[in-house]
Fold:
Amino acid sequence: MRVSVCMIVRDEAEALPRCLESLRGVADELVVVDTGSLDGTPALARAAGARVFDCEWTEDFAAARNRSLEQARGNWALVLDADERLCDPGAARARLESFAAAHAECAGQLLVHNLGPEESRALLTRFFPLRPEWRFAGRIHERVLCSGKEPPRARTGLEIEHEGYRPEIVAARGKLERNARLLERELEQHASDPYIWYQLGRTRAVAGEHVGALEAFERALANCTDDVAFAPHLIESAAYSLRALGRSRQALGWLSGTTLDARRADSQFVLALLSMDCGELERAEELFQRCLELEGTFPEGGESAPGASSFAPAYNLGVMREVLGDAAGARRWYERALRSRPDHAESRAGLERLARGAS
Structure:
């Protein structure tokens, strides 16, 4: 097996060295397609032994990624971005070889940890046979297809840390505006594609544009079936936009008519928040505790927030206990939240309030 790491880059001189360091001993070759860097990124890549190719940026991520695949000489492609790095790189090569031996016609998924204040996790297809029928499609949030169809997928066991969604990076690079523009262009040709509407809704929601986000989520829901991989996260996202618009009661009623996976902490967490908003405190407490029982699991159903099964429900249970005058119970839950996330400022503030009240 020869692994070609295929990357597209632009002005990534700060992030690229960390990514390349994580690839030592993993790649047989490194193919980098540069879409117009001005900061010395191509020279850094060449110094690391990469074959670098220039590519005019046409506002089409799939086109740039396919250019990298066309230049690769291996028989398996591993796709990374410069603001990502492999976790446990020492074990990565053996895991890739094991996967390739067992899944000759299958796409490999890597678990991507999106770092930042609102951490999330997602399974993304990043490892697949390097043959002409395997190509990317989509101007943005591009997908790997085989002969134009969705391929079978399986987990590789590899994990990646991704820094590109940190708020300061998103703002500095104008990612939200760019993403919305490209998604709207994509919809001009694929107006009934639920995945594109879902991604547009997410982009608008992150920007705080919840009216527009809800419109996009509704279009996605109207065009998708329950069996699509992202359906649970789509439903959760629509509920959060309703909540942001002050429509928690409507969101709770709507979710009651949908099928939510009791094994998915993210779904249980949004139900708990809405129940708390609507004064259904016993139900909210039960749901938050159910979330904590799911800590450490990675559910099916699209992007997931690890906080939904750890510090976030514990913190909310602390708030509820504090409001009800149960200082000892509140303290236990705030301390539970801090065991999962020691830097959680809200839980620390809760403990400080309780300490002042007891003095």
Notes: The chain has a mean pLDDT of 95. The CA atoms of residues 285 and 352 lie 23 Å apart. Residues 3-168 form a domain with the Spore Coat Polysaccharide Biosynthesis Protein SpsA; Chain A fold (CATH 3.90.550.10). Residues 175-189 form the longest helix (15 residues).
